[in-house]
Amino acid sequence: MALATFISLPLSELFAAESKSSKFDQDRAAILGMVGEYEVKFHFEETLGFNNDYKLTKPYDEDAKELVVLVEDSPKRILLQHLLVVGESTVIKHWGQIWTFEDRLITQYKGQ
């Protein structure tokens, strides 16, 4: 004997749930889409010296490759690590992105 269960939802709730799920999937796909290799150009320009005798260096540009690698991919958390590759052999752990769905902890900078 087959048993079917039907639940009755207003169409607005049905479409809202479907929209939220597809939005979540779209967001995940966009974040994961950042993984890859990029050619980047950095412009270095000092704007402040902490010592009165310090002379600011002349601004310069640097070309590099940036690798964005996937470190963690769990249902509600994605970690991406950015690595700079300068020249043939220099790899610099540059910065990371931590994406947590509906994170309850938000870090705010409080300073000048």
Concise structural overview:
The chain contains one helix and four strands. The protein has 112 residues and is of the alpha+beta class. The chain has a domain at 35-112.
Protein architecture, described:
By secondary structure, the chain is of the alpha+beta class. A hairpin with a 2-residue loop joins strand 2 (60-74) and strand 3 (77-86). Helix content is 20%, strand content 40%. It is built from one helix and four strands, in the order H-E-E-E-E. The model is unreliable at 1-8 (pLDDT under 50). It has a domain at 35-112.
Strand content: 35-45%
SSE class: alpha+beta
| Average residue-wise pLDDT | 84
Task: Trace the largest sheet across and list its strands.
Answer: 1-2-3-4
Q: Gyration radius, to the nearest Å?
A: 23 Å
Number of strands: 4
Described by the principal axes of the CA atoms, the overall outline is flat
How many helix segments? 1
Q: What is the percent of helical residues?
A: 10-25%
- End-to-end Cα distance, whole Å, is 70 Å
Could you list the spans in which at least 5 consecutive residues all have pLDDT below 50?
1-8
State the main characteristics.
112 residues; alpha+beta; four-stranded antiparallel sheet; flat; disordered N terminus
Q: In terms of topology, how is this protein built?
A:
Layout: H1 11-32, E1 36-44, E2 60-74, E3 77-86, E4 90-100
Antiparallel strand pairs: 1-2, 2-3, 3-4
